[in-house]
Amino acid sequence: MNPTIELLKSHRSIRKFKDQPLPEGALEEFIRAGQSAATSNQVQAYSIIRVTKPENREQLAELAGGQPWIKACSEFLVFCADMKRATEAAERAGADVVRGMTEQLLVASIDTALMAQNVVTAAESQDLGICYIGGLRNNPEQVSELLKLPDHVFPVFGLCIGYPDHNPEVKPRLPVETILKQDYYDDSQDEAQVAAFDDTMHQYYLARTGGKKDSTWSQELKPLFTSKLRPHMKEFLEKRGFGVK
């Protein structure tokens, strides 16, 4: 092991932050680290909105389903998949561009996620805490209007960054042997391994909540697969210019 690997393995989501600003220039350095992430064909299909106005943070906290740490963190960023900049640059270079391809949606989403994870690692290396906010996709239209996002740009998730004001345990992950397959997709051991992981998560939830949460990994997944999750996203993405072609 080395410090980088140990840092990556120590990640926790932080939802309580101290009232303390980041050092001058730190955020810009984190963003530069994010820009060093891999990007498909050098497209760099992302933009980040730094939200500083308290009233905008208040609205975003509500739109994300009531997440007060959006208001409390030192920095709140909205990571956006952005195909506007690249397609317009190609157009100015003389290309007859085609918009709305599914691959463009994938490239922009993947680029954004890779870039954000580099930002997270950089922040955590400075003893800061983070929390991803996927809840912005609960109301992507309103979020886009608030942030004045143009067509061919959409909010993928938010990110809280700040100094932790609590010390949660690292949440267990599935065993490596469950997700690391040799040569072919072999799921013959998955059921037994998931059952063992359910036991691990059951103990984790009991310990974290002082016995108040009696659940498992599989039980926590049920809401994701018993209802249509954010069905508005397809229409929203099409309106934004990210069609399925």
Automatic annotation (TrEMBL):
<dbReference type="GO" id="GO:0016491">
    <property type="term" value="F:oxidoreductase activity"/>
</dbReference>
<dbReference type="Pfam" id="PF00881">
    <property type="entry name" value="Nitroreductase"/>
</dbReference>
<feature type="domain" description="Nitroreductase">
    <location>
        <begin position="9"/>
        <end position="163"/>
    </location>
</feature>
<dbReference type="InterPro" id="IPR016446">
    <property type="entry name" value="Flavin_OxRdtase_Frp"/>
</dbReference>
<protein>
    <submittedName>
        <fullName>Nitroreductase</fullName>
    </submittedName>
</protein>
<dbReference type="InterPro" id="IPR029479">
    <property type="entry name" value="Nitroreductase"/>
</dbReference>
<dbReference type="InterPro" id="IPR000415">
    <property type="entry name" value="Nitroreductase-like"/>
</dbReference>
<keyword id="KW-0560">Oxidoreductase</keyword>
<comment type="similarity">
    <text>Belongs to the flavin oxidoreductase frp family.</text>
</comment>
<keyword id="KW-0521">NADP</keyword>
<keyword id="KW-0285">Flavoprotein</keyword>
<keyword id="KW-0288">FMN</keyword>
